């Protein structure tokens, strides 16, 4: 079937009668009683489908990000943090810093001082309010001397 005409409409089947699929596109005939050889694309249907697919893609990305965070046992981030990531970047960075500090503190207790110091530095860069992490890092620098 060769399509002889392409038409963009806003209303879909209310504007152009014919066989419509998913509210997005439909085939219609220009002359009553002839074969349906023209294609109409609904702008409203395209907008609705794009909106639904955009929300689905965003939620899929949020879920993937959350499961990526959950792989770390020192994670303090929640699904809500992943959902509102574009609006809460500073708070999320602070929580990531707290996770680094917790991991660095555990490594300090295991006497893995170099790895601990690296994680404590990363944690303090993101969450500078942690006084105990500063003290532990100062102890590390005293050990070096």
Low-confidence stretches: none
Global Rg: 29 Å
Mean pLDDT: 90
In order across it, which strands form the biggest sheet?
1-4-3-2
| Strand percent estimate | 5-15%
Q: How many DSSP helices?
A: 5
Q: Name the shape in a single word.
A: rod-shaped
Structural class: alpha+beta
Main β sheet profile: 4 strands, mixed
* Total number of beta strands: 4
Distance between the termini: 83 Å
Helix content: 55-70%
Order of helices and strands: EEEEHHHHH
Describe the structure.
The structure is a single chain. The chain has 145 residues and is of the alpha+beta class. It is built from five helices and four strands, in the order ββββααααα. The protein has helices at residues 43-70, 79-83, 89-109, 113-126, 131-144, and strands at residues 5-9, 19-21, 25-28, 38-42. The protein has a four-stranded mixed β-sheet with strand order 1-4-3-2. Strand 2 (19-21) and strand 3 form a beta hairpin. Helix 3 packs antiparallel against helix 4 (113-126) and helix 4 packs antiparallel against helix 5 (131-144). The longest helix is centred in the middle third of the chain and has 28 residues, at 43-70. It is rod-shaped, with a radius of gyration of 29 Å. The relative contact order is 0.08.
Features:
145 residues, alpha+beta, 5 helices, 12% strand, rod-shaped
Summarize the structure.
The chain is α+β, with helices and mostly antiparallel strands and 145 residues long. It has five helices and four strands, in the order ββββααααα.
């Amino acid at each position: 079937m060769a399509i002889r005409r392409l038409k963009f409409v806003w209303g879909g089947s209310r504007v152009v009668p014919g066989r419509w699929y998913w509210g997005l596109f439909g085939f219609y005939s220009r002359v009553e009683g002839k074969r349906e050889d023209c294609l109409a694309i609904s702008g409203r249907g395209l907008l609705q489908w794009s909106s639904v697919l955009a929300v689905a893609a965003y939620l899929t990305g949020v879920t993937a990000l959350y499961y990526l965070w959950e792989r770390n046992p020192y994670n303090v981030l929640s699904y809500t943090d992943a959902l509102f990531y574009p609006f809460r970047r500073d708070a999320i960075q602070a929580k990531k810093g707290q996770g680094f500090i917790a991991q660095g503190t555990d490594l300090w207790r295991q006497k893995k001082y170099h790895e601990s110091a690296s994680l404590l530095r990363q944690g303090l860069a993101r969450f500078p309010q942690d006084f105990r992490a500063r003290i532990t890092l100062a102890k590390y620098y005293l050990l070096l001397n």
